[in-house]
Amino acid sequence: MTIRFLLIFALIQPAFIHCQQPKFDTSQCEITKGCHLPEPKDSVGMGVAWNLLDDETLELELFVNTDQANGRYVAVGFSDDDQMGNEPVIECSAIAQQPPSLKFSFDKANGKGNERVPGNFSAHFYDISTSFQDGQLYCKGTVKVSGSSENEKVFKYDPSKEYHLLLANGKTTAKGLGYHKSQSSVSRKLRLAENSGFDKTQCGKSKGCTMPDAGSCYNVDGGIGASYRPIEGTQNIEFEIFGPANTSATNDVFVALGFSNDEFMNASSVIECSQLPGEANPTMKFSYNPVFNNTRIAGEEAIRAKLIQQSIGKVSDGSVYCKGIVNVGGDANEPRIFKWNKDQGYHLLFAVGFTASTGLTPHWGSCVSILTFLDQLDNIGFNDADCGNKKGCFQPTDCDGGCDEIASSWQVLSPNKLHVELTGKVATPNKYVAMGFSTNGRMGNNSVIECSSFDNGTFSMTFSYNLVNANYSNLRPSTDVSTLFSNQRVQFVDGVLYCSADVLVEGNANDQTVFKYEPGTNYTMVMATGETKTNGTKKGLGNHHGKRSVAPAQLLSDYLPPTAAPPPSGGTIPLVRQKRQSSQGSFDSSACGKTKACYEPTTGDAVSYRVINPSSIEFEFSSTQSSPSGVYLALGFSSDGKMSPADVIECSSLGNQALSMKFSANSGYSNSRIDGEEDIRSQYITDTQTSYADGKIYCKGTVKSDGNANTQIFKYTPDQKYYLIVAKGAASAGGLGYHGQNGKHVSSQRLLTDLSAGNGSGSTVTLVMLHAIFMTVAWMTMVPTAVIFARVLRSSWPTLKPGGLLIWFHIHRGANLIGIALMIAGFVLILVHKDWKFVTAGWGGKHAIIGIIALCLAWLQPFISTLRCSPNDPRRPIFNYIHRGIGVIAMVLATTAICIAGYHFTGNRNVVQLVLALIPISVIFALSIFFIIFNNLVDVDTKSFTKQNGNSSPRIEDIPMRPTSKTETETTWTIRSPQSAASPDSDSSRNEVPLEKKRLWVNRFRELVVYGAVLIFVAIGTILSVFFALGLNGK
């Protein structure tokens, strides 16, 4: 019996162990641990989870779906930015046939690969569990994240920092992690201590969100909302629901989400996040509001088990939160269970309160949302809170026959596309709400966009045209215009009509009704509502009976609302745009240097600043611009006069948004938006004024300047001198565009409290630019020219000795001395720029160290030359080898330093600059090798010349290629007549090229080659100098 039991146990033990192997559990994500799980399209399936136990201990999980564990990894990097390079890494990897384990590694700078951290750090990892099961490699463990004194590349957690988690997977070896190819993902910037809850940074990106503000709530001051993300190919929606929880008495709380056709709670299906008495955590459930109370649904638990998956929830820090995937196809036997109608928008009703054994008690707080479509990332519905900001609106109230709450909005998506909304009270079908685009201030002869119903049919959006000649008529489209309306949303509920669509407005030569939008044209918006008419096959819009209003003319791209509607008589409206007086302001330059400091780099652009106290600064911006939309004037604060890194405050209109002051940051050679900047801006920039008048944008505001947890937000340091970088240009919805060649200016270095700093320009860029030009000309032109003359043309012009010295020596010495002078000047310039401080960090440090060694060797050469012995001294070869060797080493080092500068210090043409910098030294080496071979193949020992003596026949004499003897004061050449080795009449003499011609050709060839090389050196020095000057100016 015992043997049989042991045999059975041996058979089932592997399966038992297999079942017990750990795997990644997503159900606790955002509850007990933070998670980053990339979208399926971004990976084969991988993820990371973390739970910070204290400031030195991190519980970490990593997994990846893979075909085998051997030689595979999944790793997470902890980075200050969203780029891979120069950050610590924790990996889950299986090297060769070894079992999976957690290890430390490090991503090299600039994404140049990964290296495993050497040393034994097993004491940093404990409670480790790993597995490879069902195609998933998994590691979990507790990691000591306090760093290591043995190696600074071991991850050290900083509680004050936010991290981007860089997740990647691929193949690995004992050396380090292999390239991940496309298998990588970057998380939002987050604090590891914040491992759960609602992530609003993904709203409008990967999920739709509704978060009513206090003005839409009763007894709730924000902190309530929901998100929704339809899962493609299914009837499922992933919901998140959160709200405030008064847990002073009990944790039995709820936040409920009702789906209503109107703004009332009765007859609404509900999905709730509730913790009923006896439950450990809140979960998602179904319920129903029959009137103004909530009731439980019989059999709901069974329905819930079938329709709600992965429901998780928690109550903490005064809030309740749930997340789950809900099948919104409804229940065939229970109509009170929420069933999603994709074509319908919902008012989302929120309620918060306490629970009892019978369910939800009457709520103590509630909110209502605008009309919302659950399959849209951005809420769809007429939201007047966005009027004048994200869209232009016309909401008339002055109609003679009553306006029936008609309203319209428009948003310019592109030069040929508008997003249009129309809404109004409409009792029955066969009605319309229409908006005309008039260029003459009248209702006639203009294109119309309408939402209408004919013959008791459904409402839809289309074009028409109001034609006025002898009679009025409403022309219908003569072509199929349905394809010109995309993303169309139509809702007709309880007598309220709402329609929206993205409308192509590029006109149609064959159809007069199709509206053609002209961006530079002022339009008078005409709104009307009434009945539609059908007479046989002829259809049209009926008379509005006074339910009509006309707005002042304006550019459609200018979303600021008009001050007042004109009288309803329909008279011609002056095409003058009115502005909100509350937003007006202008730059007062007379106060500059008195009550505020100013920097006005051009006559049309200016910024001012006034330090109120160390934590508060008042800024003004003024800039000449052709439009108030899609433009910016930005002010960067730099410690070294460079564009990056720099904190930025800007006066901008992103795309078609209204002007406002914002924070941004310069990184690399571009400007980027800051995560969560809108929320920070609302607290840190106050007392703002904006306007556009007389062709100038203007912004003024008081900025809280004592810093933020987000280090990209400007923080003022009172004793620091700043370079002010002012730039202007075009802006889009994505951020600031390139400022152009003349759109950026750098001030002199200044304290912000110095009111008299004025318009002095910064010399920092000029100093660096001159340093680059001087060094480039010295090493790319002068030194190579000196080298090539000495190397190739020593035997040329042997009888020409200006000042007692040969031509080649004059050029060799002169070019080198000019090069050394340029080197000294360039070295002094960069020392002044760096405030006489030596920096060794990064590529700048490598460039500096290599460059200084090259300069020292170059400056040593003139002193070594004074120690040379005479040409006939037996020790002269030793001098030659030292002199030439030092020169070669200096040239190699200088070329390396210039290559580093060309590849790393400018934003453009990096590879081109690298290649150009390598050409001079390559030419020198190539010609040296060529002429060594050439000299061995061609007889060039002597050079012949012909001397004419009166009428006698010319005398041919040979001058040796090398002097017979040399002293410090003269060079001796022994001239001899060539011997005739053969008779002039011999066959060989007739076939051979005369010796003197051959030698003359050889020397001319040498000279031509050197002249060509010098032209190359001059061209390289000039081109590189221009490129460096442009690059260092950000061009």
From TrEMBL:
Keywords: Electron transport, Membrane, Signal, Transmembrane, Transmembrane helix, Transport. Residues 1-19 form the signal peptide. One of its GO terms (cellular component) is membrane. Residues 955-969 have a biased composition (Basic and acidic residues). Residues 561-595, 946-991 are annotated as: Disordered. The chain crosses the membrane at residues 768-793, 814-832, 838-860, 881-905, 911-934, 1008-1032. InterPro entries: Cyt_b561/ferric_Rdtase_TM (IPR006593), DOMON_domain (IPR005018), FRRS1L (IPR042789). It is found in: Membrane. Residues 44-170, 222-353, 404-530, 603-729 form the DOMON domain. This is Cytochrome b561 domain-containing protein. It comes from Caenorhabditis briggsae. The lineage of its organism: Eukaryota, Metazoa, Ecdysozoa, Nematoda, Chromadorea.
